[in-house]
Design a protein that fits this description.
The complex is a heterotrimer. Chain B has four helices and seven strands. Chain B is 33% helix and 33% strand. Chain B is elongated. The chains are: A alpha+beta, B alpha+beta, C mainly alpha.
Chain lengths: 656, 144, 109
């Protein structure tokens, strides 16, 4: 296993080095044989990486504890499911998983465009191969998953119990698919810069790739939030942890790109800006990885400190220098002939949305790296807590929310007062109409009032867009309502799919705003004692122990009343995962019990149990509107799906 | 017709504005991050200040008071140690030898650190042990 | 044993990767042969984008998001572009047909 894995990694590195050379020759001499050879070389590198991954997975599944990695992250009693997931459970394996996904993306891209974009493809291959090569160097010299144990052991330590959850099998892969997915747009951007083909070709190609990456980033972040909510036992879903920020920043900049690319397609403007955004998104994924893997920023889910930080830093500097250099070199060619006509135009409002999104990404970056800067400059170690992010991101988020409503409703080029009235009268009325009752009966907080009012404003604009679009189709084409709706979306899938995403975002904001009304209690109760929180009265009935070969469970049972009426029975558990290494204590994990409803969630987490006097320490939370976050997330996914879905050209009348 | 550059200058100020706002929010949300040795050396400077304290839990130092669910334990960085008092929800990963990051403060004329939040990390402990194979061989069954 | 298998796999890959260099020059000289479909494909992409733009312009106009003058100006521009692209597509398709005939002749000979 050790030898096979290393041979595969080293030969993959050799192959990727060859491909870098071959693709460059193919590009410079416009040689088809070099290009074909480079293409096959990239597939070979990818196949070797695939084989190396297969070796590591086999080692994990067949309990080869002679490998350090297997020893550290797996053990013989773990279900097959988690043995497999241990592939990305530790740092070294996750890096291999990373380059595996990169290889899948790269192979697909090279396959899809094997007969087209011959002027771009050589440099696309070069860029992707350099990336593969970098990760392979990292794997071989710094984070080798095939390292042997220095001594013999009979069993492994097992995956961290916090990770032994079904989310472990879907959250990391989805996040990585999003993260790594940003390399394909970056590769095409670099190819456009190197080759000088700066027309809209590369932008059209990468739109769908960026959407795919964005889809997985959104999904990954949502799954992570949901995981944290269910398992970590603190009752929240987002903690502004550096690892979360690392995934959030590229999401923000990719969102910006997905909007500004429309301006480039329609008005041929913002070419430099778009190029910069693609590079920024990719650099942010690298920065995020660098920050969290190097150990220079402490994080709850960071891996142990290691030296791979230096490698990442060097590579990061290289990427920024090379891509920035090319961007500056090509600046004259990227100049646009068109210009903005008015502040009240769709172009301007999209640019505004872009700047706010990028500003948000930079604000998050600033908070994330500030401890590093402070230590480097002042020699003082400090931490930046969630309050900073909440203070800064709430206003930025609300600005984005209101722009979500304004952007699509403003005309291209310029606006007349008449058009403004026609498009905004009702949404603004709705917005004001919401703010008053919210202020009077729900909350006096400015942020809450603004958030709910903006939400209704955006909902109003989305409704208006659908209503008008359908009405026109019914009037002009005499279609029925349902046909009109389906055709409206399927013929303008980018716009109306986009509105579905916006609808999801509004629901997300509703959910986020709910956190302003959170009630939280940490309380100690004896058996058959009751306590109350919000509308609920909760009685601690009993503690039941359960046991199986690899874990012990302590389950606390509760009867819950709502408004004095019986409401539910709930069990909050503490699970102790046994270590297979002799002499090592079992590792506890919390399994919270959540009673979900659209209005609010009741959340119970068992903190500790004292057998001597049968008391428990329990955390109870009433979490209003949290479910809207997951529902909103579903709409975001659905909308993205509508936008990505390949469109059959048969809808167009054939005109020739 | 306005030139595009003017637009960018205008919008550039907007980004700058966002950054300045975020920079100005920073001081209120930052906390010093100190090791036990650093805290003891600069006791006076950080008195009554909410800070983050990093250290390792001293073996066999954990005492739990079940009456009010409070804990006392000691943390160290191999040189000096500090007693810690904490009342509240202990994370699952808290145990002897765990690396912890405590949020709290050192009250005037007291030698006990009052923590309001405990974060415990276990992962790095794994890696550490690997580099001490001797200790390991004892624990592992001798079938080699 | 594993090492041997791996070695064989490597040799296989290496041969496959390097093969394009040993192929007769002629085999890779059909670059012009598939440059035509590339151009065609790009033209068709721009066509579908332009058509989509036209549809969106209509929709924007009908939902009151464009003034009459802007609508007319933008539609006219887009229509002209579309017509150009359609013409080019026809020309390319013609060229492509001739190429194909020549190629088939070449293959049969």
């Amino acid at each position: 296993m050790h030898n096979a894995g290393n041979i595969l990694l080293v030969s993959a590195l050799i192959s990727s080095a060859y491909v870098v050379g071959a693709s460059l020759l193919g590009g410079i001499y416009r040689s088809l044989s070099w290009l074909e050879s480079a293409r096959r070389g990239l597939w070979t590198t990818s196949a070797l990486i695939f084989l190396a991954s297969a070796v590591l997975i086999t080692a994990l599944v067949t309990d080869q504890f002679s490998l350090q990695y297997v020893y550290q992250y797996s053990n013989s009693t773990m279900p097959l499911f988690y043995k497999f997931a241990a592939f990305w459970g530790g740092q070294n394996g996750s890096l291999l998983f990373w380059v595996l996904i990169l290889s899948v993306y790269a192979s697909l891209a090279v396959f899809f465009y094997r007969f087209s974009h011959l002027d771009l493809m050589p440099y696309v291959i070069t860029t992707l191969s350099i990336l593969q090569g970098f990760f392979l160097i990292l794997l071989i010299f710094q984070a080798n998953p095939f390292d042997l144990m220095p001594f013999t052991v009979v069993d492994g330590r097992g995956l961290n119990p916090l990770l032994q959850n079904y989310y472990m099998t879907i959250h990391p892969p989805s996040l990585y698919l999003g993260y790594v997915g940003m390399s394909i747009p970056f590769a095409f951007a670099m190819a456009a810069l190197i080759s000088g083909r700066l027309d809209n070709q590369w932008v059209i190609i990468i739109r769908r790739w960026t959407l795919t990456a964005w889809f997985f980033l959104s999904l990954g972040n949502l799954l992570g939030a949901s995981w944290a909510y269910e398992v970590l036992g603190w009752g929240g879903y987002w903690a502004w942890d550096p690892v979360e920020n690392a995934a959030f920043m590229p999401w923000l900049s990719a969102s910006a790109f997905l909007h500004s690319v429309i301006i480039q397609e329609k008005r041929n403007m913002l070419k430099t800006w778009n190029m910069a955004l693609v590079i920024l998104s990719f650099v942010l994924t690298l920065t995020g990885t660098f920050l969290t893997r190097s150990g220079i920023v402490s994080s709850v889910h960071s891996f142990a400190q290691s030296d791979i930080g230096t490698y990442f830093l060097v590579f990061l500097v290289l990427v920024v220098t090379v891509s920035g250099g090319f961007l500056i070199y090509r600046l004259p060619a990227l100049k646009s002939k068109n210009h903005f006509d008015s502040l009240l135009s769709r172009e301007a409002s999209f640019l505004l949305n872009n700047l706010v999104l990028v500003g948000a990404a930079l604000a998050v970056l600033w908070g994330t790296i500030f401890p590093v800067i402070s230590e480097a400059i002042r020699g003082v170690k400090i931490t930046v807590g969630a309050p900073y992010f909440n203070k800064v991101m709430v206003p930025i988020g609300l600005a984005l929310l209101v722009l979500t409503g304004i952007g699509p409703m403003v005309p291209w080029k310029k606006t007349s007062v008449e058009a403004l009235k026609k498009n905004f009268l009702w949404p603004v009325a709705l917005c004001v109409g919401t703010s008053i009752p919210v202020y009077l009966w729900v909350s006096h907080s400015v942020w809450v009032v603004l958030s709910f009012s903006f939400c209704s404003f955006v909902l109003g604009t989305i409704y208006l867009e659908y209503y008008r679009g359908i009405k026109i189709r019914i009037q002009n084409l005499k279609e029925s309502f349902s046909t009109a709706l389906i055709r409206l979306v399927s013929k303008n899938e980018r716009r109306y799919g986009g509105y579905i995403v916006h609808f999801g975002i509004v629901l997300l904001f509703v959910g986020f705003t709910g956190s302003a009304f959170k009630i939280e209690k940490e309380i100690q109760v004896k058996q058959s004692q009751a306590f109350s929180i919000g509308d609920y009265t909760i009685q601690f009935d009993n503690v039941v122990p359960e046991q199986d070969p690899h874990k012990e469970v302590i389950k606390a049972q509760f009867s819950v009343w709502k408004h004095e009426k019986p409401f539910a029975y709930m069990d909050a558990a503490k699970v102790f995962y046994k270590s297979q290494v002799p002499g090592e204590p079992a590792q506890p994990a919390t399994e919270a019990s959540i009673r979900r409803s659209l209005k609010e969630d009741l959340y119970l987490a068992l903190i500790s149990f004292e057998p001597s006097d049968r008391t428990i320490f329990i955390k109870a939370i009433v979490n209003p509107l949290v479910q809207w976050i997951w529902i909103g997330g579903l709409f975001v996914m659905l909308g993205t799906f509508v936008v990505i879905w390949p469109k059959s050209n048969s809808l167009h009348p054939r005109s020739s | 017709m306005i030139k595009q550059t003017k637009w960018f200058i205008g919008f550039g100020f907007l980004i700058l504005g966002i950054l300045i706002i975020s920079a100005s929010k920073l001081p209120q949300s930052t906390q010093y991050y100190l090791t036990v040795d650093e805290l003891i050396a600069q006791k006076d400077q950080h008195k009554n200040q909410v800070i983050k304290l990093a250290g390792t839990v001293v073996d066999d130092s954990i005492e739990k008071n079940t009456l009010n669910a409070s804990w006392t334990f000691a943390v160290t960085n191999n040189h000096q140690t500090m007693r810690v008092y904490f009342q509240g929800a202990m994370p699952d990963t808290f145990q002897d030898g765990a690396e912890v990051v405590l949020t709290g403060s050192l009250k005037e004329d007291q030698s006990v650190f009052i923590a309001t939040q405990v974060l415990a990390k276990c992962a790095s402990r794994y890696e550490e042990k690997l580099s001490k194979p001797l200790q390991y061989q004892k624990e592992a069954q001798p079938d080699a | 044993m594993t090492t041997l298998v791996l070695l064989l796999i490597m040799i296989g890959f290496a041969a496959w990767v390097l093969a394009p260099h040993w192929k007769k020059k002629g085999a890779y000289h059909y670059i012009h042969f598939f440059e035509t479909p590339i151009v065609l494909q790009q033209l068709k992409e721009s066509k579908s984008l332009l058509l989509q733009s036209l549809r969106e312009l209509d929709l924007d106009y009908e939902t009151g998001k464009l003034s009459v003058e802007d609508y007319k100006e933008l539609t006219q521009k887009t229509r002209a572009q579309t017509a150009e692209v359609l013409l080019e597509i026809d020309q390319e398709e013609e060229k492509w047909k001739i190429f194909k005939q020549q190629w088939e002749k070449h293959v049969h000979e």
